């Protein structure tokens, strides 16, 4: 389990709860970001009443948020059971990583063809923030920004169904890393992201594809999917 996960910390504190009467649309990104930043360990319980009390909303509102995350297969919901974060087993992890590679390698080709200058600028700004947080030692935030990089890159491909598909795979990947990472990455993901942007901006689909494969190879290399869980 990564250092970002803090199972002993009170759930509302991890989610930055405190404001009340938030809408489902406002609560959802807080939970989503907590998952991307690995602040919630895989398998964490997400009790509706506790979350409702923390955000000052009804269980119905919380149920709507959890349902949206369940549609992305990030949260597991069963009748008469407390919802909890997914905790992918090794087989599920391999399937997610395989699906993500298929999606990413298709999307990078489309993004290379369709990216607009304004989108490239926004993506560079995001990677600059990722670099700053990495160098400041804010690993959890850097991880989230790295995930956002891939989701924004998917938007540049202008294929909404594929982008939605990837948006579910990115937080699942974060849970997989939190559960199976065997060593901290010895490279800077932001540098790889910057190189991918360069290739996309130049319209070099072949280089962009090769860089994406290398990036995903390094991500998978730090996982030990044979370890007991």
TrEMBL record:
<dbReference type="InterPro" id="IPR011711">
    <property type="entry name" value="GntR_C"/>
</dbReference>
<keyword id="KW-0805">Transcription regulation</keyword>
<feature type="domain" description="HTH gntR-type">
    <location>
        <begin position="21"/>
        <end position="88"/>
    </location>
</feature>
<dbReference type="Pfam" id="PF00392">
    <property type="entry name" value="GntR"/>
</dbReference>
<dbReference type="Pfam" id="PF07729">
    <property type="entry name" value="FCD"/>
</dbReference>
<protein>
    <submittedName>
        <fullName>GntR family transcriptional regulator</fullName>
    </submittedName>
</protein>
<dbReference type="InterPro" id="IPR036390">
    <property type="entry name" value="WH_DNA-bd_sf"/>
</dbReference>
<dbReference type="GO" id="GO:0003677">
    <property type="term" value="F:DNA binding"/>
</dbReference>
<dbReference type="GO" id="GO:0003700">
    <property type="term" value="F:DNA-binding transcription factor activity"/>
</dbReference>
<dbReference type="InterPro" id="IPR008920">
    <property type="entry name" value="TF_FadR/GntR_C"/>
</dbReference>
<dbReference type="InterPro" id="IPR036388">
    <property type="entry name" value="WH-like_DNA-bd_sf"/>
</dbReference>
<keyword id="KW-0804">Transcription</keyword>
<keyword id="KW-0238">DNA-binding</keyword>
<dbReference type="InterPro" id="IPR000524">
    <property type="entry name" value="Tscrpt_reg_HTH_GntR"/>
</dbReference>
């Amino acid at each position: 389990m990564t250092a970002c996960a803090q199972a002993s910390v009170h759930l509302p504190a991890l989610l930055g709860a405190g404001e009340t009467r938030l809408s489902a649309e406002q609560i959802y990104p807080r939970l989503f970001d907590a998952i991307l930043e690995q602040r919630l360990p895989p398998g964490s319980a997400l009790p509706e009443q506790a979350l409702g009390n923390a955000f000052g909303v009804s269980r119905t509102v919380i149920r709507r948020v959890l349902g949206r995350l369940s549609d992305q297969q990030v949260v597991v919901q069963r009748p008469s059971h407390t919802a909890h974060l997914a905790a992918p087993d090794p087989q599920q992890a391999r399937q997610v990583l395989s699906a993500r590679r298929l999606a990413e390698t298709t999307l990078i080709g489309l993004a290379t063809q369709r990216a607009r200058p304004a989108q490239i600028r926004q993506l560079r700004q995001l990677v600059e923030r990722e670099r700053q947080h990495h160098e400041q030692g804010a690993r959890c935030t850097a991880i989230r920004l790295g995930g956002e990089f891939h989701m924004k890159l998917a938007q540049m491909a202008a294929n909404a169904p594929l982008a939605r598909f990837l948006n579910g795979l990115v937080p699942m990947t974060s849970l997989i890393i939190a559960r199976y990472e065997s060593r901290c990455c010895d490279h800077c993901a932001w540098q790889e992201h910057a190189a991918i942007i360069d290739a996309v901006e130049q319209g070099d689909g072949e280089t962009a594809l090769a860089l994406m494969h290398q990036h995903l190879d390094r991500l998978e290399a730090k996982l030990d999917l044979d370890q007991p869980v």
